[in-house]
C-alpha cells in the first residue's frame, strides 16, 4: 500500500515540476515577443506582459473598433436586457456572448490594476457599495469597463500611461 502511495506522489511531483518548467518557458517566450511590441499597456501599474499579450492578441488592430464601447461589447462586458412592454428587470445576468478570452484578460487585468491605482480602487469600492447582491462580480466588471476605456485611449494614441496628479491645496 505504501509503495503505491509513494509512486502516486512521485508521479504527481514530477508532473508539477514539468508544468512549472513549461510555465517558465512560456513566460520567457511571452516576454521575448512583447519586447518587440510597443510597451503602451505595460506602462499601466499592475499590468504585466501576460495580460498585455492576451489583450493585444484578442483585440488585434484597435482601428477595427469604432470606440471603447464596441471593444467592451466584443468582450461581452455588458448585462442582458430583460423587458416586456413597460417592465424592465433590474436583476439581469452578465452576457455570455463575446470573446471569453478577452473578457478574462480585461477582468483579471482590471482586478490587478485596482490594487495598484487608487482611482480604480475607489471606483471599485463605490460600485461595490451600490448593490446588495453580487457586489464583487458587478464591481469588478464595471471596473473592467473603465479599464477598457483606458486601454482604448492608450492604444489609439500610442502613448504610455501617466497617472493623474493629485492636487494638494495648501492654505
**Strands in their spatial order, largest beta sheet:** 1-2
Give the terminus-to-terminus CA distance: 77 Å
Structural class: mainly alpha
- The Rg value, from CA coordinates, equals 21 Å
Point out poorly predicted stretches. none
Strand content: under 5%
Strand count, sense and closure of the main sheet? Answer: 2 strands, antiparallel
Q: How many extended strands? A: 2
Number of helices: 6
How would you portray this structure in words?
The chain is an all-alpha fold and 171 residues long. It has two domains: 1-36; 39-157, no CATH class. The chain has six helices and two strands, in the order H-H-H-E-E-H-H-H. The protein has helices at residues 2-35, 49-59, 68-75, 100-116, 118-130, 135-157; strands at residues 83-84, 87-88. The chain has a two-stranded antiparallel ribbon with strand order 1-2. Strand 1 (83-84) and strand 2 (87-88) form a beta hairpin. Helix 1 (2-35) packs across helix 2, helix 2 (49-59) runs antiparallel to helix 4 and helix 3 (68-75) packs across helix 6. The termini are far apart. The mean pLDDT is 85.
Amino acid at each position: 500500500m505504501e509503495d503505491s502511495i509513494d509512486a502516486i506522489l512521485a508521479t504527481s511531483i514530477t508532473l508539477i515540476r514539468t508544468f512549472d518548467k513549461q510555465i517558465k518557458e512560456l513566460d520567457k517566450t511571452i516576454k521575448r515577443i512583447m519586447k518587440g511590441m510597443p510597451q503602451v499597456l505595460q506602462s499601466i501599474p499592475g499590468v504585466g506582459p501576460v495580460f498585455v499579450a492576451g489583450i493585444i492578441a484578442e483585440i488585434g488592430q484597435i482601428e477595427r473598433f469604432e470606440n471603447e464601447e464596441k471593444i467592451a461589447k466584443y468582450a461581452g462586458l455588458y448585462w442582458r436586457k430583460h423587458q416586456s412592454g413597460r417592465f424592465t428587470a433590474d436583476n439581469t445576468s452578465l452576457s455570455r456572448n463575446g470573446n471569453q478570452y478577452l473578457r478574462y484578460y480585461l477582468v483579471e487585468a482590471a482586478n490587478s490594476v485596482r490594487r495598484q491605482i487608487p482611482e480604480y480602487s475607489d471606483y471599485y469600492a463605490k460600485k461595490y457599495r451600490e448593490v446588495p447582491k453580487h457586489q464583487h462580480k458587478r464591481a469588478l466588471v464595471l471596473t473592467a469597463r473603465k479599464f477598457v476605456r483606458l486601454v482604448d485611449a492608450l492604444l489609439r494614441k500610442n502613448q504610455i500611461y501617466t497617472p493623474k496628479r493629485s492636487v494638494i491645496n495648501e492654505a
